[in-house]
Amino acid sequence: MRGGSGRWEMRELAKQEHFDWNIIRRACTAFVPYWKKAIMVSLLLLATSAGGALPAWLTQQIIDDGILKGQVSVVISLTITLILIAFVTGLLGVAQTWLSNAVAQDVMADYRLTLFSHIQRQTVNFFATRQAGDLVSSVMNDVTAIQNVVTSTLMGFSSNVLVILTTLGLMFEMNWKMTLLSLVVVPGFVIPTQRVGGVRQRLQGEIQQKLSTLTVQLSEQFGVSGALLTRIFSRESEEIRKFSGVNQELRNLQVRQTLVGRWLFMWIGMFSSIGPALLWGYGGWLVIHQQMALGTIVAFTSLLSRLYGPLSQLAQLQVNLLSSIALFRRIFAILDVEPDVKDGTTSIPDGNVDGRIRIENVTFAYRTEGTNKPTEVLRDIKLDIHPGQMVALVGPSGAGKTTLLNLVPRFSDPLSGHILIDEYESKSLTLSSLRGQMGLVPQDPFFFHDTIYNNLLFAKPEATREEIEEACRAAQIHGMIVGLPEGYDTVVGERGYRLSGGERQRLAIARVLLRAPRIVLLDEATSALDTLVEREIQEALSVLMQGRTAIVIAHRLSTVLTADKIVVLEHGRIIAEGKHHELLEKSRLYRELYEAQFSVQGTKPDDLRGTVEQVVQK
Ligand SMILES: Nc1ncnc2c1ncn2[C@@H]1O[C@H](COP(=O)(O)OP(=O)(O)OP(=O)(O)O)[C@@H](O)[C@H]1O
After folding, report:
1. Termini Cα distance of the chain
2. Can you tell me where the transmembrane regions are (predicted)?
């Protein structure tokens, strides 16, 4: 099933969850920076708990010392005190809610930021093996779910314990036998409450799973690529049917969750009424036999709700704690993923290298979970590229061209071997100074849903308008941009869908030109373009590569013809190197590739050479 697998996993985890003290301890460290506020919250809780118990005690005084003894002044003064206590307790309650929410929100904001920053440090492989929707769900939903748990478990726990202790203290102080009698019925409602809590929690897990499935479907269907795919295969009705199914299941689960345990609640209600009944019966007997004052019964009955409510909530503590442990476990699982690529320490200014690239005995394998011996995708690659040279990578699909290209900016690190930029081992450089030396034009460039201007600024935030226009002129895209009704302020649409493939390529070239890197990495688009666009792109590319070291995954005839060196890859190995004509003679695979890929571009190499050379000389 697409989507929701993470949630499903979480529900399963919650079912098998146990008290993992390491997780609890680690979760609590998030509160350390807010210890002052947390202490304030505890003090306020203590004050509000005591304030909440006092009215029952005062009621007893009003009845026994005021009403029954005919003391009007006592009744009046105690009534005023009751009102004052209610007012002060109310104010303290507001302060406590505000502070405890502030702490919970602070902790949540910290977690969201920590997760986002941590995920920003991850390599491309991290995203290739995870569902984006699931990561979004962790950063947003899990963290928010924790907030509820934190307030209901941590704060709820302390406030309930305090209320129970203060209430029990007062009860014992008034009459210990009546106190024990009050506690007799407790198991009668605590046990069912616990059961209902468990069922509700399980239903909540299923609801979260359905919500996540719907969220993933929505995000897939509302994105341009997903919408296109659905329309081209005419799967709209099927998608609506699927949505409707999950939507209905969600509705049923939510109804069940609301109604679950209604019989048990009737039972609980009954037990909560039995408590006061027992107190009136036994208390009445004590009063009649003059062993206790009437006010004590009234005080006890009003204290009962302060005892039973918090006890029921405490009964659900275990379920709450277990589900919060499951949530924290999911969050910590992401935080514990160490980035595949570690930052180096040497920093060099951008553009401060000649651009020599040496790839020495490089072997690479993708890390896949659950396999001990990953399959090698690149084996023993040796390549020496001199400053200003252009190397074209060719090879059948899956040969490892993209993988090799991605090793240069350290999107991944090789299992063995070294990559050197000038005399620097690439691992020794900080990632920002390594990547600052190079620009990448991917096959399908990505753009943010923002204006063309802002998308270009992303590459160089300090760029002036002139610099941006100059880069676009060089990339043969300025004319097209100014022809748009809103020019550079045109919003390119999600992923840049408002632009054609060729326009996206040239805009991506402009973006790299802005950075003026010493090294250019290029994955040429495979799509065939008409001659005019082809020529515009060719001109843009020749400007891009002029005086720069370039590694190009070649899909164009003009590229292989002008390359200083063509490297033929097969099954992760370099099987041949040389110029176009040399390879045509000595490499069978190259000949086959040439016939299959390059010659279909309609022009014979010799016819094209003149054109290409003209372009390159410009
Ligand atoms: N993230 C990944 N995890 C695991 N294996 C991967 C990953 N990316 C690529 N591969 C595998 O590595 C091999 C080389 O892939 P790569 O994309 O480098 O080939 P390529 O030569 O660029 O192919 P193409 O020309 O089709 O883009 C393939 O077998 C591919 O399935």
Report:
1. 54
2. 39-58, 70-92, 149-172, 263-282
Contact 468, 488 (CB under 8 A): yes
385-415+425-437+519-618 placed in CATH 3.40.50.300: yes
> Does the beta carbon of 268 sit less than 6 angstroms from any atom of ligand 1?
no
The residues of the chain that CATH labels 1.20.1560.10 are 20-335
Condensed to tens digits (0 to 9), the pLDDT of residues 561-611 reads 888 999 999 999 999 999 988 888 888 998 888 888 766 554 444 443 333
User: Residue 240 above 50 pLDDT?
Assistant: yes
Between CA 438 and CA 287 the distance in angstroms is 91
> Which residue type, as a one-letter code, is found at position 218?
L
Least confident of 64-78, 87-101, 252-266, 371-385: 252-266
Interatomic CA distance for residues 10 and 16, integer angstroms: 10
Judge whether 528 and 576 are in contact, CB under 8 Å. no
Q: Identify the residue whose C-alpha is closest to ligand 1 atom 4.
A: 366
Distance 210 CA to ligand 1 centre (A): 33
pTM: 0.76
pLDDT band at 288 (very low <50, low <70, confident <90, very high): very high
Q: What's the CATH fold of domain 443-516?
A: Rossmann fold (3.40.50)
Nearest C-alpha to atom 16 of ligand 1 is from which residue? 400
Domain 20-335 has CATH 1.20.1560.10: yes
